[in-house]
Predict the structure.
Amino acid sequence: MALYNLEVSDNIMRFQPNLGYYTKIVIFLCLVGVCFVVVPFLNIGFDVKRFAYFIGAGVSCYVMYDFLFVVKVTMIFDRNTRAVYKKIPGIYTKRLMGFEEIKLVNDTSYGTLTYHIGAKSNYFVKNYEISDTFSNNKKGHQRQQEFETTILEPLLEFIK
Amino acid sequence: MTYKYFVQDGNKYQLKSQLVFIGLLSGLFILGGLKFTFFHDEGKEGAMWVGVFMILLGAAAALRLTAKNTIDMDAKQLLVKKNIFAGEVAYNLNDFDGFLVASTVAFFGVTMNATGNMTFNVNGKEKNIMLNQSMFTVKPLNEMINEATSIMQLEK
């Protein structure tokens, strides 16, 4: 599946759940562009301009963080060690939990449905994203269906 | 084994009401409402109605202190009494679907409001039953759910 870069071999299953953030990053980069390229040439007061610069700076920090640490996160399910790993390419790989501890969590904290996984004892406190966000409309339902059939069901089978 | 969030009575486990949390919440609303109702500025009658509305909200919140949720492991059911006026409703634990923590996150990752729910699937219809509520953190809800999980013997 293109959206998640899914790779399955005998013992390792890996995918990148956050690739949907690229759209967000492009939109925010456009916003930053507007703040720093278009606003200086507008005929408005300096106070308003300064406000726009602040927004631009904040948004560019956000974009940088997303680009470095969030977008390329890879979840690795390894059958050899029976554990889940979270890999940020080029920075670190962290062991999250064993296969026995995995619990599936539906998260709607930001308004849209997302699938998370967490370790058994504190799965609502500390959990890790494994899917894109699915909004509550026709397109979102379709994408959710697609995710469930191509990734979630094989995954649940895989970690047995 | 003793539980922090449940009172055990034989094989019945009653969920403790959140006296401190709800008391604080409704107390603040009622105090603020009283202030606006009786000590508003001269000629600002609108403040009085805001105060009355706040008192009503606080009273509605305080009503939740009289809720009674009991897990009955003999009859395998959850008895829900939302407040002192409402009747008792029984849900069969065979219809139990899962736990749900619904939280609202705003302002750079600060959890503003979170509720711990039990989801039942009654004849194909989804029923959410709110057990506890918290602000700023979901950790107490997680602990409550862990206790409920061990009471209902869902873990093998």
Observations:
- Chain A has three helices and eight strands.
- Chain A has a mean pLDDT of 87.
- The beta strands of chain A are 7-8, 12-15, 74-78, 83-88, 92-98, 102-107, 114-119, 127-129.
- Residues 23-70 of chain A form one domain.
